[in-house]
Amino acid sequence: MKKLSILGVTGSIGTQTLDVIKKSKGELKLIGATANSSVKKMIEIINEFDPLYVGMMNIDCAEEIETYCNKNNKGTKVFSGMDGINKIASLEEVDIVLTSLVGMIGLEPTIKAIRAKKDIALANKETLVVAGELVMNEAKKYGVKILPVDSEHSAIYQSLRGNDLKTLKKIILTASGGPFRGKKLNELKEIEVEDALKHPKWNMGRKISIDSATLMNKGLEVIEAHWLFECAYENIQVVVHPQSVVHSMVEYTDGSIIAQLGAPDMRLPIQYALNYTERKNLIANTLDFYEVSKLTFEKPDLETFKALNLAFKAGKIGGLMPTILNGANEAAVEMFLNRKIKFLEISEIIEKCMDVFKDEVIKSLTLENIIDLDKKVKEYVVSSI
User: Fold this and answer.
1) Nearest Cα residue to 130 out of 381, 366, 384
2) Which residues of the chain have pLDDT under 50?
């Protein structure tokens, strides 16, 4: 039995991970789980999965769950706040930690888990975007595996398995194109929140859905791929593939291309990461090539979706520039979701922040500097609108 903690258990990835656990026939056991403020969902999880520990970011919600556990003779221990999340991330009993918190908040507990020598099933993009060098160095230091959960990075991971990284020529990241694929700038001026949340293929949370609509999601994945696979940005190519069947590809020095294909179902990469190095029995629909009929590939429109271009730029500059990119994006997406800015302003705000804070890039890459600069960028975005 493999024992795990899930950071962000009530979100899209966390919920699908619970389904993987249910179908694992006792081979996976939930020991710890965290959420922000979803009391009802967490109580349901306690009743069904009986975790030993839960952590709630919201202190009042933690107290409500603790009261419930005491009244109903549940043996679950309840923690609260950031300290509680960090405790769940570094539990002695746990073998692997799935980090599916959305945003910068996932960085600190991931570092704590690595230092506690827990393997990481990584579904939090921002961790490697803002602190890729730091995280990968810590993983090497503590002998920890970073197992990607994103479908694209899982595909690359699987396509590289058994081969020498020295023979890698190029990574080809596929993108669905999001809900606005094929549209031009003038068609996106009056986009509503509801339109941007309608992803054509994947079931994702609100923030990630907006990132997919701007193509920032793919930009963040480019920076992740750079760190996960030691690949230069010049050798990472993004290709729009609307069918979402080819999850990503690897080109080798001899010109051979290996791809990983499958149904667009996040439970597949989750299952692969949690059970690595084994493959388990089918958990989702299999791919039927008679039904697929055709696979198409397009060049991304970087003029309309310039967030992707900004991510490449930030990654190449390096240092703390990806922290600036990510912080500005998180703040801008939140403002768009709250209807305070327009859709196209998201990329404009990111570009402005990359210019305003460019002198901060020369600082050393430490956890403290990353957290401090992220806060400054977000405060600037909020105050300047």
Assistant:
1) 366
2) none
Question: What CATH number should be reported for the domain holding residue 90?
Answer: 3.40.50.720
Would 239 be classed as within a structural domain? yes
- CB 91, CB 84: distance < 8 Å: no
Q: Is residue 372 part of a domain?
A: yes
pLDDT per residue as tens digits for the range 84-121: 999 999 999 999 999 999 888 999 999 999 999 999 99
Do 125 and 171 share a structural domain?
A: no
Domain edge (last residue) among 124, 148, 172: 148
Over its C-alpha atoms, the chain yields an Rg (Å, rounded) of: 20
Q: Is 152 a known ligand-binding residue? A: yes
Structure tokens at 4: 């795990």
Task: Report the pLDDT value the prediction gives residue 283, as an integer from 0 to 100.
Answer: 86
Does 286 lie in the same domain as 247? yes
Q: In the prediction, which pLDDT does 102 show?
A: 86
pLDDT at 202: 65
The two three-digit tokens of residue 291, written as one number: 């039904």
Report DSSP state, residue 365.
-
205 assigned to a ligand binding site = yes
Phi, psi at 279, each rounded to 5°: -105, 130
Domain that holds residue 264: 150-304
The reported pLDDT for the residue numbered 18 is 97
* Residue type for position 338: N
Is 72 part of any known ligand binding site?
Answer: no
Find the helix or strand (DSSP H, E) in which 159 lies.
Answer: helix 151-160
Coil, strand or helix: which one is 3?
strand
Q: Is residue 353 assigned to a domain?
A: yes
10 annotated as ligand-binding: yes
Task: Please tell me whether 171 is known to bind a ligand.
Answer: no
Does the annotation list 209 as a binding residue?
Answer: no
What is the rounded CA–CA span in Å between residue 60 and residue 120? 29
Residue 48's contacts (CB-CB under 8 Å, 6 or more residues apart) are: none
